[in-house]
């Protein structure tokens, strides 16, 4: 057999979504379509990220696309790509994004609201380190067709219908949940398809990796300092990429905890509840882990503003519980 023509055998994302739709989860097919729209926009963004290192070279030889968009920063570009895909798809009626100050009302009959961080960790682009996209999907609360209200977008994490992330790493992956477990798909660029590579993901209950920006140690609250000391005494490994999706994904596979605590600079930490924490909290719980502010479950937080920040402790059950115990 000629190995050059051997195709990966397995379930494509499209087939998987269709199968789940048939089984039980989303009878109308709208949520299925929404996931496909996000996956497609992810392919486009992936392509642009892969070219990122070439931009200056491309610029030097004077090529530019029609809209002049090549010169835009990648996080702005990613925001445009996702918002456009969601708007064209018609299933989403509104988008809130880390890149937009206000709610984007898509003025259509869609039933779903999307919260998105189109390109997290974008300071890592210049140094060729993994970055990601994070998204949450909610059902709108007010009647379809009416103007979007704040109550449609400021929903608790426990109201999420689906959540996921794309990781643009050594391979590009899409990991998502609709509340029935977590599944990971790896992108095969030459075929333009995502394949199910990580079915039914679960995080080891007890991890050995702690991920925190220890440079800010002196301004951590006392319980966090104590937990970090505990990690060292226990011989845990420190791993911190500084790219949330990549740090989260590694810990999900290997077991570990990611912490972005309160600091002197940011009284509520740095990460956003609506664009970063809710989605990862939903995924980690579906994978058997926990997500907390140190004192409260992330998914129980009633949001009061779009760009709200919260301290974030996420990962293996035993590790998050241990970290919380220092707050008691
Ligand atoms: P961003 O949304 O501006 O990209 O910031 C979020 C990023 C996360 O990916 C990462 O975990 C964190 O900021 C790192 O922050 P720090 O450099 O303070 O440790
Ligand atoms: Mg971000």
UniProtKB/TrEMBL annotation:
<dbReference type="InterPro" id="IPR044015">
    <property type="entry name" value="FBPase_C_dom"/>
</dbReference>
<keyword id="KW-0378">Hydrolase</keyword>
<dbReference type="InterPro" id="IPR033391">
    <property type="entry name" value="FBPase_N"/>
</dbReference>
<dbReference type="GO" id="GO:0006094">
    <property type="term" value="P:gluconeogenesis"/>
</dbReference>
<keyword id="KW-0963">Cytoplasm</keyword>
<feature type="binding site">
    <location>
        <position position="240"/>
    </location>
    <ligand>
        <name>substrate</name>
    </ligand>
</feature>
<dbReference type="GO" id="GO:0030388">
    <property type="term" value="P:fructose 1,6-bisphosphate metabolic process"/>
</dbReference>
<feature type="binding site">
    <location>
        <position position="117"/>
    </location>
    <ligand>
        <name>Mg(2+) 2</name>
    </ligand>
</feature>
<keyword id="KW-0460">Magnesium</keyword>
<dbReference type="GO" id="GO:0042132">
    <property type="term" value="F:fructose 1,6-bisphosphate 1-phosphatase activity"/>
</dbReference>
<comment type="subunit">
    <text>Homotetramer.</text>
</comment>
<dbReference type="Pfam" id="PF18913">
    <property type="entry name" value="FBPase_C"/>
</dbReference>
<feature type="binding site">
    <location>
        <begin position="120"/>
        <end position="123"/>
    </location>
    <ligand>
        <name>substrate</name>
    </ligand>
</feature>
<comment type="pathway">
    <text>Carbohydrate biosynthesis.</text>
</comment>
<feature type="binding site">
    <location>
        <position position="117"/>
    </location>
    <ligand>
        <name>Mg(2+) 1</name>
    </ligand>
</feature>
<keyword id="KW-0479">Metal-binding</keyword>
<dbReference type="GO" id="GO:0000287">
    <property type="term" value="F:magnesium ion binding"/>
</dbReference>
<dbReference type="InterPro" id="IPR028343">
    <property type="entry name" value="FBPtase"/>
</dbReference>
<dbReference type="GO" id="GO:0005986">
    <property type="term" value="P:sucrose biosynthetic process"/>
</dbReference>
<dbReference type="GO" id="GO:0005829">
    <property type="term" value="C:cytosol"/>
</dbReference>
<feature type="domain" description="Fructose-1-6-bisphosphatase class 1 C-terminal">
    <location>
        <begin position="203"/>
        <end position="326"/>
    </location>
</feature>
<feature type="binding site">
    <location>
        <position position="276"/>
    </location>
    <ligand>
        <name>Mg(2+) 2</name>
    </ligand>
</feature>
<feature type="binding site">
    <location>
        <position position="98"/>
    </location>
    <ligand>
        <name>Mg(2+) 1</name>
    </ligand>
</feature>
<feature type="binding site">
    <location>
        <position position="213"/>
    </location>
    <ligand>
        <name>substrate</name>
    </ligand>
</feature>
<dbReference type="GO" id="GO:0006002">
    <property type="term" value="P:fructose 6-phosphate metabolic process"/>
</dbReference>
<keyword id="KW-0119">Carbohydrate metabolism</keyword>
<feature type="binding site">
    <location>
        <position position="270"/>
    </location>
    <ligand>
        <name>substrate</name>
    </ligand>
</feature>
<feature type="domain" description="Fructose-1-6-bisphosphatase class I N-terminal">
    <location>
        <begin position="12"/>
        <end position="199"/>
    </location>
</feature>
<dbReference type="Pfam" id="PF00316">
    <property type="entry name" value="FBPase"/>
</dbReference>
<comment type="similarity">
    <text>Belongs to the FBPase class 1 family.</text>
</comment>
<dbReference type="GO" id="GO:0006000">
    <property type="term" value="P:fructose metabolic process"/>
</dbReference>
<feature type="binding site">
    <location>
        <position position="119"/>
    </location>
    <ligand>
        <name>Mg(2+) 1</name>
    </ligand>
</feature>
<protein>
    <recommendedName>
        <fullName>Fructose-1,6-bisphosphatase class 1</fullName>
        <ecNumber>3.1.3.11</ecNumber>
    </recommendedName>
</protein>
<dbReference type="InterPro" id="IPR000146">
    <property type="entry name" value="FBPase_class-1"/>
</dbReference>
<feature type="binding site">
    <location>
        <position position="120"/>
    </location>
    <ligand>
        <name>Mg(2+) 2</name>
    </ligand>
</feature>
């Amino acid at each position: 057999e000629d190995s050059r023509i051997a195709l990966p055998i397995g379930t494509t994302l499209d087939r998987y979504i269709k199968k789940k739709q048939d089984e039980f989860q989303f009878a109308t097919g709208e949520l299925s379509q929404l996931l496909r729209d996000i996956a497609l926009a992810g392919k486009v963004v992936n392509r642009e990220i892969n070219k990122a290192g070439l931009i200056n070279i491309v610029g030097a030889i004077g090529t530019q696309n029609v809209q002049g968009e090549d010169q835009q920063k990648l996080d702005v570009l990613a925001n445009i790509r996702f918002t456009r895909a969601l708007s064209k798809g018609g299933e989403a009626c509104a988008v809130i994004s880390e890149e937009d100050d206000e709610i984007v009302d898509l003025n259509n009959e869609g039933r779903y609201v999307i919260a998105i961080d189109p390109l997290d960790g974008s300071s890592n682009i210049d140094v060729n380190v993994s970055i990601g996209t994070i998204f949450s999907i909610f059902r709108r609360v007010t009647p379809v067709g009416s103007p979007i209200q704040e109550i449609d977008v400021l929903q608790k994490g426990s109201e999420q219908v689906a959540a996921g992330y794309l990781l643009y790493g050594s391979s590009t992956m899409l990991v998502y949940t609709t509340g029935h477990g977590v599944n990971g798909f790896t992108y095969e660029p030459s075929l333009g398809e995502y394949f199910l590579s990580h079915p039914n993901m679960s995080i080891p209950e007890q991890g050995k990796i702690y991920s925190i920006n220890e440079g800010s140690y002196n301004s951590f609250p006392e319980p966090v300092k104590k937990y970090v000391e505990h990690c060292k005494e226990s011989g845990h490994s420190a791993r911190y990429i500084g790219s949330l999706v990549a740090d989260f994904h590694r810990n999900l596979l290997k077991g570990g905890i990611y912490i972005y605590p309160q600091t002197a600079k940011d009284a509520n930490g740095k990460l956003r509840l609506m664009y970063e924490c809710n989605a990862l909290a939903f995924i980690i719980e579906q994978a058997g882990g926990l997500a907390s502010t140190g004192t409260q479950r992330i998914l129980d937080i009633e949001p009061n503003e779009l760009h709200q920040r919260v301290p974030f402790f996420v990962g293996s059950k035993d590790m998050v519980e241990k970290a919380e115990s220092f707050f008691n």
